[in-house]
Amino acid sequence: LSKPLLSDSSKVIFIRVKPDNSGVVTDGVKHSMNPFCEIAVEEAVKLKEKKFIKEVVAVSCGPTQVTETIRTALAMGCDRGIHVEVSGKDYEAMGPLQIAKIFAALAKKEEASLVILGKQAIDDDCNQTGQMTAALLDWPQGTFASEVTIDGEKVKVVREIDGGLETIKISMPAVLTADLRLNTPRYATLPNIMKAKKKKIANMKPADLGVDMVSRVEVLRVDEPPTRLAGVKVETVDDLVAKLKANGTI
């Protein structure tokens, strides 16, 4: 659920690469819910309001700061939260596979009927966690969902694909990933924010779930993009061609 965002509505934080080129500086950066995960939370709460499911559990993996994001989900209507504590080098190296292993283990432990995620994170844009979770569980998956309808033990999912819309029907338990047009997330009201403070958040570590956090991907280095050169205005097409020839472009 939680990703460190590098800007908010009140200020802009410039992205800086660490001096050792091992990653991006995130110290002091506010954690905020991934927008697609926010849509997933809204859909889960709506399904509960329609009496299709009994309980909504919000899960986030990361350091202590992610509890703020879980509280946001609780204020939106989730019943309880689970914080899987991941910090230090494990947090920096954590990718879709490690998160999928945690979600799969929790889905089994909680005897979940649906796992609903955002289709992708807005920082790495991996779009892999939902698919990997379904594969590890050997459950059907409905990805890029723009409409979800539950009918008994079946789920009808309208998927957004390159060619338009695709409608599928899958059996529960299943994994769904939310696309942009699935719904419009509600704002957490002040009374619900206050109620969320009393809701339970369980803490656990990946080891408690038997999950190996070793990453199979190694980041060699992170570099800032090259500084853009100043543009040049030309008066005519002939001037443009002359400039391109002088630069060796043509």
Automatic annotation (TrEMBL):
GO CC entries: electron transfer flavoprotein complex; mitochondrial matrix
Principal place of residence: mitochondrion
Family under the similarity heading: Belongs to the ETF beta-subunit/FixA family.
Superkingdom of source: Eukaryota
Protein's UniProt name: Electron transfer flavoprotein subunit beta
A biological process term (GO) from this entry: amino acid catabolic process
Keyword Transport: yes
Location relative to the cell: Mitochondrion matrix
InterPro entries: ET-Flavoprotein_bsu_CS, ETF_a/b_N, ETF_b, ETF_beta_N, Rossmann-like_a/b/a_fold
Function, in words: Heterodimeric electron transfer flavoprotein that accepts electrons from several mitochondrial dehydrogenases, including acyl-CoA dehydrogenases, glutaryl-CoA and sarcosine dehydrogenase. It transfers the electrons to the main mitochondrial respiratory chain via ETF-ubiquinone oxidoreductase. Required for normal mitochondrial fatty acid oxidation and normal amino acid metabolism. ETFB binds an AMP molecule that probably has a purely structural role. The electron transfer flavoprotein serves as a specific electron acceptor for several dehydrogenases, including five acyl-CoA dehydrogenases, glutaryl-CoA and sarcosine dehydrogenase. It transfers the electrons to the main mitochondrial respiratory chain via ETF-ubiquinone oxidoreductase (ETF dehydrogenase).
Organism whose genome encodes this protein: Oncorhynchus kisutch
Gene: ETFB
Keyword line: Electron transport, Mitochondrion, Transport
Keyword Transport: yes
Residue ranges of every copy of the Electron transfer flavoprotein alpha/beta-subunit N-terminal domain listed in the record: 21-213
